[in-house]
Design goal:
There is one protein chain. By secondary structure, the chain is α/β, with parallel strands linked by helices. The chain has 10 helices and 10 strands. Helix 4 packs across helix 5. It is globular, with a radius of gyration of 19 Å. The protein starts with 10 loop residues before the first strand and ends in a 9-residue tail after the last helix.
Length: 262
């Protein structure tokens, strides 16, 4: 185990076959407090830099994926000068660590993903949900706001507004129907499904996969012409790498490629 993971209190990290499984373990519902946020930044920043990791699965221990922010930390924030800016900066960092991680992240949503838990799932690249999972943005129920921009990345305009304005729970089967999730499976099949996808990703050229993820992040709000031109620069850069040459040789020779990340 990498030394960065040895003293974690809110997470468990396991790495096998180039896939890291990150499990939230903050009972009873994996609520996000300051320590949770500090640790998730450390975990994903470390995984970003570990060459042996090519894909990541994020899931929750117990009955919830994450029930959101630990509101017990909030009562006096508005009364202490500087407290909210510090709090908000760490919240953003906790989401950005997942969103900006150079390796694809698959959310294996095993149960409730509420508020900040919903946003955390939506920071991942691919959503796989259990039949008994649900996503909900409940900020309006507690007099707060947030998460709109993240919700709009996965949901259409009408569904996003319905979700935010009503705090409606969107169940696993509904998420699949709405094209917000890539698969909805029985609870016992959730982790095997997510790990199977992660292993497929890990078998590809890591440099090409990371370039593809950069393209998703950078071109999301670019005009089509500019976005495609950027992607073409990535193709040119990749064509000069050992991994791309190996991928093309393996394709021609009808064998499995061996990648070294160079």
């Amino acid at each position: 185990m990498h030394e960065a993971f040895q003293d974690l209190q809110r997470f468990r990290v396991n790495v096998e076959e180039h896939v890291a499984t990150v499990t939230m373990q903050a009972p009873p519902v994996n609520a996000q407090d300051r320590l949770f946020r500090e640790e998730i930044v450390r975990v994903f920043d470390t995984l970003n830099d570990l060459p042996e990791v090519r894909a990541i699965v994020l899931t929750g221990d117990g009955r919830a994926f994450s029930a959101g922010a630990d509101l017990r930390e909030r009562p006096n924030l508005a009364e202490v000068p500087g407290a909210y800016p510090r709090h908000n900066r760490l919240v953003r960092a906790s989401f950005d660590a997942v969103l900006e991680c150079g390796k694809p992240v698959i959310a294996a949503v095993n149960g409730a993903a509420i508020g900040a838990g919903c946003v955390l799932a939506l920071c991942c690249d691919i959503l796989i949900v259990s039949e008994n999972a649900f996503l909900a943005m409940t900020e309006v129920d507690v007099g707060l706001a947030g998460g709109v921009r993240h919700v709009l990345r996965f949901f259409g305009q009408s569904d996003a507004r319905l979700m935010i304005y009503t705090a409606k729970r969107i169940t696993g089967p509904e998420l699949l129907r709405m094209n917000a999730a890539s698969a909805c499976v029985a609870p016992e099949a959730l982790l095997p499904e997510a790990l199977g996808i992660a292993r497929q990703i890990a078998a590809k050229s890591p440099l090409a996969v990371q370039a593809a993820k950069r393209s998703f992040g950078l071109t999301e709000e670019m005009p089509l012409r500019d976005g495609y031109r950027y992607e073409q620069t990535q193709t040119v850069a990749l064509s000069r790498t050992e991994d791309t040459r190996e991928a093309q040789r393996a394709f021609a020779e009808k064998r499995r490629p061996t990648f070294n990340g160079r």
